[in-house]
Amino acid sequence: MTVDSPETAWVLARAEPEIARELARDVGISPLCGQLLLNRGVREPDDARRFLRPAMTDLADPSEIAGMGAAAERVARAVRDQEKVVVYGDYDVDGISSTALLSTFLNLLGADAGGYLPNRFDEGYGLNANAVRRIASSGTDLLVTVDHGTTAIREITLARELGLDVIVIDHHTPAEELPPANAVVNPHLSGSPGLCGVGVTFKVAWAVARELSGSRRVAAVHREFLTDSLALVALGTVADVVPLKGENRILTHFGLGQLRDSKSPGIRALFSIAGLGDELPTATDIGFKLAPRINAAGRLGQADLALELLLTTNSHRATEIASLLDKENNRRRRIELSIFEMAVRDVEETYAPEHLGAIALGDEKWHAGVIGIVASRLVTKYRLPTALAAFDGGLGRGSCRSIPALALPDALAECARHLESWGGHAAAAGFTIREENFEAFREDFNQAVAKRLQPADRIRPVRIDATARFDEISPAFIRELDRIGPFGEGNREPVFATRGLRVAGQVRRMGKTGDHVNFLASDGERTFRAVGFRMGALADDLADAPAVDLAYTPRFDDWRKDGAIELRLKDAMAGNGRTGN
Which helix (H) or strand (E) is 309 found in, with range? Predict the structure, then answer.
C-alpha cells in the first residue's frame, strides 16, 4: 500500500481572441502574445507598451515607503560623521544580497561599515540578543537590520538601552507594535507591499544618495553604484520568490543585464562555476544555478562565505570562494537527496492510498538546513501538506510546506500545545518541538489537515495560457516570448496546449534512473522534440498512444545552441487519459 501520486487537471485561461488580436495589432506583437498580456491583466495598449519595455523611470519614488526620510537622514549623518555602522543581515540570498549592497555603499560613501550574518544553527533567524551585545561593545554607533527586524521588539529595545541607534529595513509583515527603532522602513507600513528585502535596501541607498547630494539628482558615482547594484537586487528578488510584477519585474529586468556585465569578481566567479556564459541570464538561472550556491552556505552554517564572495575585490579569492560554495552546494544536494529518499520510503511504507491528512516525519539523521527543501519536494510529489523535523539532542527543528487548499497557521494552531515555538505563512512555516512530543504532534497535525482537505484538493492544476498550433511556434515567437519575462513567481513561464499530436519515433527515458522522458511530437507537418522532466513513468503510455495532448513551454534547446526549438513539458495526456505529474 502506497500513497497515490496526485492527478492533474488542465485549467485553460479564458480566451479572448478578438481583444487579443486588437491589442497585438496596436503594439506590434503576435495574437498569442496578446493573449498572454490579457492573462497578466494588461489590457490597454499604453500599459502593454510599458510592460514590454520596462523603464527605471517607472519605479516608485523611495520617499513613498514609510520611514524612508528618517532612515536616509540618520544614515547620511553616520556617513558625514564617519560613525561605525553594522549592517545585520540574514543567511538567505535576500538577506546576504541586502547586506552586501548596503555595506558596500556605506563604505563607498566613506563610512566605517561592516556586515554581520547570524549563524542559522547557533543564533537562528533575525536579531540575536548576544550578537547585539557584542555589536554594542565593539563601539558601533548605528545598527541597521536588513531583511528582518520589524518584529524584533525585545532585541531592538536592548540595542537602544545599550546606546545603539537602530534602523530597520525590512519587507515582512509587521505586528501591531513596532520596535523602538530610529526608523522602520517597510513597504507594508505604506500599504504597498511587494518589494523583497534587497529591493527595499536599494530604495534606502537611493534615498541616502539623494540626502547626501541635497537634491533629487544623485552624484554620478552614486548613480553608477546604484546601477551596478541591480545585480544584487535581481539575485535577492528572484531567490526570495516575490511576485515578478510591477517594480520587482523592472528591477529584475535590468538586474539580469547587470549580472551579465557585473564588475564584481564574486559575481563573475559565481557565473563561471555555475556554467553560465556571456548570454543574458534568466530568472531561472538565478533560481536554479546562482541562488542555490549562495543559499548552500547559509543552509550549512557558513553564510559568511557567501557574503565575502559578494564583497571581495580580489579575483583569486572570489574564484576560491565560488569553488567552496559549489562544493557546499553539491554536498547540500547529496544531503537533500538522501533525506528525500528516506522520507519517500517512510511515506510509501506508512500512508495508505486514500490518505488525506498531512505527511509528518522526523529523524535524528536529518540536517535542519535542508529539510525545508525536502518538504517542498514531498509536497510536489504527493500534493499533501508536509512537516519534517530534524532532531538533535532531543530538540527538533521543523519545516512545513503546504498546498493552496490549506493555510499552515490554521493547522499548526491546533497542534501548538505540542510545540516549543512556531510561526510562518500559509504555504511555509517553521517550528521547534521536543522529540518526545512528535508522535502526538503528528497525530494532531494529521487530524487538523484531514478535516480541512477534500480529495479534489490534491489535484494539481496545470494552468495553460492558450492553445497553440505548431505552425505558430517559431524562433521569432520564442524571442517575442522573452519580452513577457523575466519569468518567475507572479509571472510564470507561458504554458501552451496542443492536442491531437502523434509521437514520431521512439520514446526515450533519460537520467540514471529513467526519471525523465523525451520524444518527437508531430502534428503531421512540423515536429518538435519534447522533454518531460520527472515524467519517465509515462514513457510506456506515450509510446503506445495513438494520439497525445501536450502542455508545454516552447524554448530554444539549451544544449544544441543552434536555434532548435524544444517543448518543455508541463503535462502530457495519452489517448488512454493518463496524465503526467
Answer: helix 303-311
